[in-house]
Automatic annotation (TrEMBL):
This is Translesion error-prone DNA polymerase V autoproteolytic subunit. CDD domains: S24_LexA-like. Its EC number is 2.7.7.7. InterPro entries: LexA-like, LexA/Signal_pep-like_sf, LexA_repressor, Peptidase_S24_LexA, Peptidase_S24_S26A/B/C. GO terms for biological process: DNA repair; regulation of DNA-templated transcription; SOS response. The lineage of its organism: Bacteria, Pseudomonadati, Pseudomonadota, Gammaproteobacteria, Pseudomonadales. It comes from Pseudomonas proteolytica.
Length: 145
């Protein structure tokens, strides 16, 4: 599993049209008169800039929660990392995306793929939490952003 840091999201994005109808399985041509309002993705997703950054995931240790190789993740540095949340962390300078768990005083970084063993944070290990994963973004055209 690898993480490529892509950088911070700096400023509010360009507003996009938000249509006032639900998209059925067959997508009808949206007409201009169906536009309810314009909204930026950072507003829609509730992103709190400048604490948010993007990272690209490499590997399949998180596929059990729908995060796959090549996906982008939106990460917030300002959210407190609590057990049960998916985090971007560095364990002994190795960047990871894992579910943060705790058993008593023992922190565990758990993969969401049964073929990967959990990573126990030992007494002499250095664990840095870079942020909490808010969203994952996947391209459906097989072209990476």
């Amino acid at each position: 599993m690898s993480i490529d840091y892509l950088g911070h999201i700096d400023a509010p994005g360009h507003p996009l049209p938000l249509y006032s109808f639900t998209v059925p399985a067959g997508f009808p041509s949206p007409a201009q008169d169906h536009i309810e309002r314009e909204i930026s993705l950072d507003e829609l997703l509730g992103l709190r800039l400048p604490q948010v950054f993007l990272a690209r995931v490499g590997g399949d240790s998180m596929k059990g929660v729908g995060i796959f190789d090549g996906d982008l993740v939106v990460v917030d540095r300002a959210i407190e990392a609590k057990p049960g949340l998916i985090v971007i962390a560095a364990l002994n300078n190795e960047p990871l995306i894992k579910t943060l768990c705790k058993d008593g005083d023992q922190f565990i970084l758990r993969s969401e793929n049964a073929t990967f063993a959990p990573r126990y944070v030992l007494e002499n290990d250095e664990l840095l939490i870079w942020g909490v994963v808010l969203y994952s973004i996947r391209s459906h055209t097989n072209a990476r952003a």
